[in-house]
Each structure stands twice: as structure tokens, then as C-alpha cells.
Amino acid sequence: MTLENDKRADHNQELYRRWRDARSDWDTEARYDIDFYHGNHFSSDEVDELQSRNQADVPMDRIGPAVEKFKAVLTSRAPAFTMTPREDSDVKVASIWRTIMGYVWGNSDGDWQLKQAIHDYATTGMGYLYTYIDPESDFGRGDVKFTYVNPFRVYVSPNTRNRWFDDAEGVILSTILSGEQVISLYPELGEQVNPETGEKETGIIQDLNTYLEEDYPEAMNSNGKKIFTPAEVKDLDYFERNKYQILERFYKVKVNFYRVIDMQSGEEVIFSDEEYEEFIENNREQIEASQYQIIPVKQTRVKVCASIGQVVLYETILNTDHYPIVPIPNIFTETPYPKSDVSRARPMQRLLNKLWSLALSHAQASGGLKLLVPLGSVEDLGQLERDWANPNAVIEVDSTQGEPHFPAPQPLAGEFYKLIQQCEFYIDFTFGLPEMMHGFAEKAPDTVKGTERMIALGTDRPKSKLRDIEFSINRLGQVLYNLSKGHYTYKKIFRLNSANNDITEATVNSYDDKVGSILDIKKEKHNLGQHDIRIEPGSTLPTNKWAELGVYMEAFQMGIVDKVEVLKKNPEIFDKEAILRRTDEKNQLMQQVQAMSEQIKNLEGDLQTAQRESVSDRKRVEVEKFKSRLADVASDAKADRRVQLNNLQTKVKLEAEKLANVRADASSAPENFGTS
After folding, report:
1. Distances from the Cα of 96 to the Cαs of 100, 514, 521, in angstroms?
2. Long-range contacts made by residues 11-17, C-beta under 8 angstroms, separation at least 24?
3. Which residue, 71, 104, 235, 615, has most beta carbons within 10 Å?
4. Is position 607 within any domain?
5. CA geometry: angle 445, 449, 454, nearest 5 deg
């Protein structure tokens, strides 16, 4: 590879510099917000001023815990995806796609990725989820995945007004790597062997422009809580000085497609340019005979151009019409630069810190004993100070000049502490978190219904924010759906672990003479948007498991659900699978007992008939034999039932002992007033 300036690489660099400079103000504000989350609330000048007044530079951090609780509430559970066919598609196909989406979510550690994106959403105002194809996954066959992306690595045209950047000129993802990392990913940039001479030649990486700055701005504040930032630790490795920047620019283009309709069968297939050329080559006679109707169309697709320095690494077109970098804006401003919850709470946190510092200063002043000595009443004040610490000291004073006395400290007004509480409440209110959701038992209502109502009211604001987040997750699902169509065109079995350790399987591109293809993704590759992808509203929010159990108990009493479903919802019973197996065994035993009872009942009916028909001694003998036979059958049935019921009673007793131990352990644990 030779080093040549590429106009595409130059264009990437130009757009990067423009869009970086356009968001500089957002960078500064976001760094302030991150500092406040980490507890760095004071600048160097503020620390010096506080220390000069002998005041503590210790913040009363309310923002950090609020952010953590906010994340816990919004990401309590994994989102539940639903797939709805847009047309009269097979419902089974939609079920397969649900399994595929669940597989992608689990394979990407989706719960953690979403939690980190929500963290950025709360602290900087913008979270990002990036969809991609991992070429090394599944032993080189590749897998569709997604990951969170630090918002400081994403650069967008400032002119965009759409919350998902649909109208953006493009999106740039910046990645800073060391020289060794770059060569590992792109060996053609490193040392090469000349095929003609067999000699080693120096790679062009040494001629590329190094990148001296990071994508992360410096911290704005600092105090006793020292937090290292990426900008501070970038140079800690003194032996690795060369850093390189890879720019991946995503932008939308129009791509040619061809709708080919078989005039005889009515079957329609969509081909790309390459697939269409192959189709023409193999079906020239049929095309000349007008067996196919061909309709050329143009569709929007996302193209990515990756460059490093002056070199273009690769170009490719993705099988999606949405940007694979999905934004999650917080307080949307119709720009790529939203505001965060921390930015709203920051002024109140500053006021809270000042009030807290004054309270500490007053406590220090009030806690120390102060002695007022009239002028001239003591000859040696130094000796008085030394003697004052001796409980048995005799101190001589001139009472004519007055006597030493202690001034009574003046307490802070009650409104002062009320103001502190109001500041704390406002910060929690900004994040939509009542005090009880932080686990403060004294803030909880006296009744269970009151607690449930408070929890419901306390989650109204998080639910409102969750609706906005769900819009972005739906967009993420659409991109994953499109990329999966373009990638999973080979035979593959998707396995997904669901509740109660049940395993759901879905097979694609598998052919059978009897049932045909289970799901032929190859045919659906270019058909984007055949299913509407949504997540169930509120599926990530926490639930009250005991309240849910109560609902199922009421449904059971109404005959809507069976005992099995009630058992699944009981939070105290852990070994549900074993109990369900034993329940099946019990049901089978009871069915056997019922069958034997029916047999005895039939024999008793036959006996009564025989007694009525007995008219001779011979008949009486037959009746006596029948009685003996009936007694034997009944005795055997009772004995067998007794043994089986004894075994069952033993199992039930063991399970009761286990449940008692579980409840004993649970009662010794501290009470949790939050949601499960």
C-alpha cells in the first residue's frame, strides 16, 4: 500500500473539524455535568475561597445518588420486543424474529449497554447505541450486535433537527487507537514483504498523521474527590506516544434495486445490482419471452467510509435506511445538543453545597468553647489558656475589671435547615425520584396502599422519560432487524434462554422436503420493514412482585389462570421447576386413584345387579365369589393408594420445611421499601 491523498479521507477530516468546533459549547457543559456526577463540584478558585474563609470544601452530593437511582428505575428489566407483521405475513415468522431479536440482545450484553447509554443520557444529555456486525463472532460467521458509544466520540452536522438524525448530512464516529492496535486491525498498514524481492518494507503507518488530542475534554472542576478522566490518563503510558484517529463517516445514498415479478406465479423477488446481473445471465431466454416483469427502483441506504489520516480503509453499504448510531436525547432542543437532568439540577446543587458549607462552619464555630476575658482582668492570657485545660487549676483574675464568661452560641434558624431539605427535594424532583424510592423508611406512608400509590406517583416522571427512551430503542430494533436480514442469510439456529430456564429455538434458512423453509432470510434480505418492531411500554420499569402475586391470586380465584401461573409469580419460592414436576406427579397419582375409584364403583354396581338376579343357590355362590373378588380389589386399591399418598405426604413435608427456612431467612433481612 502506498500513501496517497484521498479526497474521501480529506472530506472526512474536514467534516470532523467543522462538526467538532460546532459542539464545543456542548462539550464544556457536558464536562461540567460529568464532574458534578463524580462529586467534583468546586473549581480551584472556589476551593481557595472556601479555605480562605476557613470553610470546608466538602460537597453534599445529591446528584450522584439521584443519577444511580434514575438508572436503576429505568433499566430494572430488559425490554420486551414485539414483532407485528405489517401485512398478512405468517405469525410464526414474527415469532422467529422475536427470538432472533432476543438472541441479539443477549449476545450483546444488552442490559449493560442500555444502562450505560442511560447513564450518558442522564449526565450529558445524550446517549448512543451503535449497531454493527462482529466479524469474529460465531467462529468467523459473524453476528449482529450493538454497544453503547461514548457521546464525545460522535459528531453530527449541527443543522439536523430530527431526534434520530434522519435529516443529518452525516454522522462521524471517531476512534483513537495506538499504533499496535491499528496494525492489528489493518495489517496492510504495517510492515510488508515485497513479493518480488522478498525484503521487508516499512509500512505506511509511520507516514500517517498522529492524533495528539483525545475526543474527551478535560475536567472542569476538582476537589478532594480526584476522578481521572480519559483526557488525563491518555499519556500515562510513556512508551506509547503515537495515537491514530479512525473516522467512520455514515451518510445516506440512493441504491439501485430491481423488483422482478414472475408473470405466471406472481412471485416477486428483489435483487441488488450484482444479484440482478447474475439473474439476467441465468434467465435470458425467459426475460426475452417476457416471463418476468422488471421494475427498477431506488432506495435509501446508509453508506460508511472509514479513513485514517489520508488513507481510506474501506467503504461499504449497510442493509439499513437508518443510521446505525442511534441517539437517545434527553431534554430535546431540536438540535444535536440536548440538555441533561444534571444540568437542571446543577444550580440547586451549588446552593445546597453553600448551605452545607455554612452549616459545617457554624457547627465548628459553635462546637469550640470561647471565653471572653475583660481587658486587664488577667495578667497572662497565655497562662490562662494553658490552665483552662486543667480541671483542677486555680485561676486568679481581677474581678474589678470584670469576670471571664462564655458567650452562648446562636443556633441557626429552622428556615435554614428547611431550605436544605427543599434543595434536596428539588434535585430529586428533577430526576422524578421521591425520597422513599431512595430507601428512606421514615418517608414511607403508613399503609401498603399508600406506599403503592406513592410508588406509582413517583414513577410518573420516569415513565414519561421512558417513553422517549423507548422511541430510540424501537429505532435500535429496526436497525438490528435490517442488519440481521442482510447478514443471517445462512443456516443458523438461534437459542434463547427465557423465564424458568426454558430454551426457545428458532432455525432460519433450513430446508425440509415436508415443511419447506422455516424462514428464508435470503428472500427477505432487501425487504426492509416487513415487521413493526416495538417494545412493550414500561417493560424496563421495576415491578412490585408481591402486588403482582396478589393480582394473579385474584385471577386464580376468578378462574382466569391456574395454580401453575400463580406459583411462577411467587417471589419466595425459588425451586419452581422441581415443584412443578412434583405437582405433575401428584396430578398423575390423583388420576390413578380416581380411575381405581371408578373401577370399584362399577364393580359395586355389578354386585347389586347380581344380588337382585340371584334366584338359586348357584347364583348365591357366584355372588359370594363376586363379593370376595370385590373385597380383594378394594383392599389392593386402598393399599396402593395408601403407599402413594404416604410418599406424597413425605415430599410435601420436606418442601414445607424448606419454605419455612426461606421465610426465616427473609424475615431476618432488612425491609426494603423500594420496588423489587
Report:
1. 6, 19, 11
2. 11/249, 12/172, 12/247, 12/249, 12/305, 12/307, 13/247, 13/307, 15/155, 15/157, 15/169, 15/170, 15/172, 15/249, 16/155, 16/172, 16/174, 16/247
3. 104
4. yes
5. 55
Specify the pTM.
0.74
- As a whole number of angstroms, the longest Cα–Cα distance in the chain is 141
Which cell goes with 161?
A: 433537527
CB atoms within 10 A of CB 452: 15
Total residue length of the chain: 676
Instruction: Answer positive or negative: Cα dihedral of 170, 174, 180, 181.
Output: negative
Q: What is the 3-state secondary structure (H, E, C) of 320-356?
A: CCCCCEEEEECECCCCCCCECHHHHHHHHHHHHHHHH
* Nearest one of 609, 603, 605, 563 to 586, comparing CA atoms: 563
Scanning 158-239, the segments in alpha helix (DSSP H) are 179-185, 230-233
Dihedral sign computed on CA atoms, order 641, 647, 650, 651: negative
Q: How far apart are CA 420 and CA 188, in angstroms?
A: 62
Cell of 313: 480503509
C-alpha span between 247 and 263 (Å, rounded):
47
Tell me whether residue 588 is in a domain: yes
pLDDT band at 409 (very low <50, low <70, confident <90, very high): low
Q: What's residue 320's pLDDT?
A: 95
Amino acid at position 534, single letter:
R
Closest CA to 216 of 231, 232, 228: 231
| pLDDT band at residue 449 using 50, 70 and 90 as cut-offs | very low
Compute the distance between CA of residue 78 and CA of residue 540 in angstroms, rounded to an integer: 5
Which SS3 state, helix, strand or coil, does residue 174 take? strand
Angle at 480 between CA 477 and CA 542, to 5 degrees: 35
β-pairing verdict for 243-262 and 200-201: unpaired
- The number of folded domains in the chain is 1
Question: d(Cα 342, Cα 349) in Å, to the nearest integer?
Answer: 9
Q: Which helix (H) or strand (E) holds 648?
A: helix 617-668
In a domain, 271, yes or no: no
Reference 368, options 388, 383, 384; nearest CA is 388
Which residue carries 398478512 as its cell?
Answer: 88
Q: Does the residue 614 lie in any domain?
A: yes
Provide the domain limits for residue 596. 573-668
The residue that leads in pLDDT, 624 or 658, is 624
Rounded-to-integer distance, Cα 626 and Cα 622, Å: 6
pLDDT tens per residue across span 277-324: 999 999 988 888 889 999 999 999 999 999 999 899 999 999 999 999
Beta-bridge mates of residue 594: none
Q: Which three cell numbers stand for residue 649?
A: 405426604
**Grid coordinates in use for 113?**
449497554
In this structure, are residues 338 and 330 in contact, taking their beta carbons and an 8 Å threshold? yes
Q: d(Cα 384, Cα 578) in Å, to the nearest integer?
A: 80
Q: CA 518 to CA 509: how far, in whole Å?
A: 7
